[in-house]
Amino acid sequence: MNHLDFVTDLRPRLPSPVQEVVDARFGRGGVRLVLKRDDLIHPELVGNKWRKLVPNLVAAGGRAVVTFGGAYSNHLRATAAAGRLLGLSTVGVVRGQELGERRLNPSLERCVADGMRLHFIDRATYRRKAEPETLAGILRAAGAEGAYVVPEGGSNALAVRGCRALGEELRGQADVVAVACGTGGTLAGLAAGLGPGQRALGVPVLKGGFLGDEVRGLQAEAFGGPRGDWWLDERFHFGGFARTTAELDAFADDFEERHGVAVERLYVAKLLYGLVVLVEEGAFVRGATVAAVVTGAPFGAQPASR
After folding, report:
1. Is the bond preceding 15 in cis, omega lying within 30 degrees of 0?
2. Prediction pTM value
3. What is the pLDDT of residue 162?
């Protein structure tokens, strides 16, 4: 199956729309805010999941697809949905062997409903999943030898090159393009696609301070070396992945009310909160346009069509 087959079958909305929002918090800093509505690309393969997954699904060539994630992984859900839509067998390797002994949470239930077979492994093994011997053992145990392997978060060279189109679509439309980051693949590709004078900002949603090295490594793998002008602000993870606070929830509720855009909590809310803080700190020059990439919709909700 080639790339055109996927486009025809899944009917993505590309390029995704750019929506200006008038927000007094940005206006006071002289900053114009626009939203890059990647959540509208496809109702089930939303945002960066489309851009990262499709090149890998093409490369799979109809083979079963194995990928990795935690209990609340958006990537696992998107891969399961793609399998259902395209008639591909999918296996999700889930971090945390103990989770297999409990009732599945709604996110993993959705994966199963979409036909994904789940395989739970202990956290120590999960941390070593990139080692060839460990990976081979995981695939044997999962009954998935010979399957096409997509890494956690979908971030590999193919995904990074797929995300380059995101930057290309925003050339000339913003001075700074900001995106929430998990594994760094979207930022690596986005930065490569932007034009001269544009900068990319990544807001990590995990703790650890490791993402800079990951982005540099992914760009080296995808392009042979550094590409684009980008930086990270690691202050807005709110305790780590899949963690939120009452303050963040209140902020997201308020943004939804102001602008009629459903705000996904694990990534997008942290990005938008961070941008408000940065504007208040004077991080952007007056007159600048900042584009925030809306990489997903809240789980269980259809993205608004504005």
Report:
1. yes
2. 0.91
3. 96
**Dihedral sign, Cα of residue 133, residue 80, residue 75, residue 187:** positive
Q: Cβ distance 187 to 230 under 8 Å?
A: yes
How far apart are alpha carbons 117 and 115 in whole angstroms?
A: 6
Show the beta-strand stretches assigned E in 39-146: 65-69, 90-95, 117-121
Separation of alpha carbons 235 and 215, rounded Å:
18
Query: Could you tell me the two tokens for 111?
Result: 């994966």
Alpha-carbon distance 118 to 16, whole Å? 32
Report residue 278 as tokens: 């940065």
**pLDDT for res 7:** 55
Q: How far apart are CA 14 and CA 254, in angstroms?
A: 29
Report d(CA 282, CA 286) in Å as an integer.
Answer: 8
Is the Cβ–Cβ distance between 213 and 181 less than 8 Å? no
Strand duo 230-232 + 117-121: pairing:
unpaired
